Amino acid sequence: MSLVSIIGYFIVSLMAAASAMLSGSSSMLLIWAVISAIALLLSFMGYRKSAAVSAKKGLATAGIVISLIAVILSAYSHFTINSAMTDPSLQKVRDEMKDSINKGMDGVREDIQQEQDSMDSH
User: Fold this and answer.
1) pTM of the prediction?
2) What values do phi and psi take at 25, rounded to 5?
3) What is the overall mean pLDDT for the chain?
4) Which of 9, 19, 85, 104 is 20 to 30 Å from 114 by CA-CA measure?
5) What is the dihedral of CA 44, 50, 51, 52, to 10 degrees?
């Protein structure tokens, strides 16, 4: 689960940045931070159990480190994106990006509609 939390962070952070551009919210990263915190808790539990039965602790230690990195990255990214979204000096850039994304989506919608129309006519 720890490895999933760090790999998933990169995917979720891209989706959260896009979501923040379109809707102004990057709460997806906070949710991911909670999921990563659960992975951290499970890694701690594994570490304690391996210590209790005198087993090797290397995998549990790796899980703790990876999960901790994922929690820190997720929380940091959330607050960084939110501060960028509220920065008035970046308003023009945000508006231009939002317009560009909307134009691209309009083009996709038109293409889909044309394909549907051509399929209906056959």
Assistant:
1) 0.65
2) -130, 135
3) 84
4) 19
5) 110
